[in-house]
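Hi F.,

I've been meaning to write this up properly since the lab meeting, where we talked about keeping a consistent format for the predictions we share between groups. The idea is simple: the sequence comes first, exactly as it goes in, then the structure tokens exactly as they come out, then a line or two of notes. No screenshots and no reformatting. I'm using this chain as the first example so we have something concrete to point to.
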Amino acid sequence: MSDISALLVHALNPWRKAKAWHVALSGGLDSTVLLHLLVQLRKTHALPALTAIHVHHGLQAIADAWPAHCQALCDGLSVPLQVVRVQVRAGSSIERAAREARYQVFAALTQADEVLLTGQHRDDQAETMLFRLLRGAGVSGLAGMPRQRRLGDGDMCRPLLDVSRTALEKYAHAHGLNWVEDPSNAHSDFSRNYLRHEVLPILTRRWPQAAATLARSAAHCAEAQGLLDELAGQDLGGARTDTAFAWLGLPSLELAPIARLSPARQRNALRHWLAHLSRMPDTEHWAGWEVMRDARDDAQPIWRLADGELHRAGGRIWWLSGEWLQSPCAPLQWLHPEAPLALPGNGQLRLIGDAPQGPLQVNYRLGGEVMTLAQRGRRDLKRLLNERGVPLFARGRLPLVYCNEQLLAVANVSGLDSSPCGRWQLQWLPTSSDQGLS
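Output, unedited:
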């Protein structure tokens, strides 16, 4: 068994019992060698079912020939191939847009207990580490590409991160493999290509093991990030307390346990918590967190991030995104209260029990609303919501049900959400906050 094969077997050992392995096949050197290695290994090892996926971006005329090349390669190796064509959205970075489109395909095609295998190698890891270093990345960024991570309902693995490009080229030549070359990889106006063609060769002439050393540093950073993640989990544990407003369905943390930590641990805990909610702010924008943390109790501070907002209310911080940042549409006529009412941009409203008589209308707060309560008479709705500690950001989304211009109930708010005799109750199922990134 070759050295590369031995490294591959070791890297893939955790995934030997997976239902299927999918190879992300671009037709380039690394993915071609990876596929060939796997085909050779399955002659002597019991491996999961093997397939290949080629994503055709259609960004270059020459790329139109690559699906046929991949098909010929897979036919010769007796590996099923799936070719998926995608539309890449225009934007500031065509590389990023193409990558996002590609990984959306991979995530959709990788099912539970299946693994997507990609061919990034040690030189790619060195480039990534150096590129992120020059962009001022922290420990997480300097950890480079992870060896494995979740992808869709399955997992993704990069089993060649300990193998150099030179070793892959030697293997390819030794086995007579052909591969395609992306002409854009030669353009040094792209930052990563500039590092690959202009910077790393200079470093390698002075330090021959530069790529290996950079990759090793990335591994050290990955280990350090793992420790930071463990610390964040411990620090967040004390802040994941219960709230009377869990029915909002929003991610939230108690502020006090976070504020008692050192500033560095605060940032570490919040990065960990926000990782699957939003892209992280740069160093300068972390001042927004300090403003929110130190605001007066009666203030309404908001920290706006790339993919949503953090609001402070009731001694907690709340994550809002998606429809929560838009005003719901109203008023609405509720002609059939025996059936749930879909609220445009605001979830669903239900009436449990015997519906009140008369035409019902659903609206939202505009200010100045008054509600009549048994034994208390007429009361300002603002005061009633203050008494119950309803977060300010939620008040404009609470469905209000009227009959003949009289406010009957406020959904989900204890003491305000039902009839005085308990014959019916108003239940609101809010829209889910968009908690994930593509």
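Notes:
The first strand starts at residue 20 and ends at 24.
Residues 386 and 392 are 9 Å apart (CA to CA).

If this format works for you, I'll send the rest the same way.

G.
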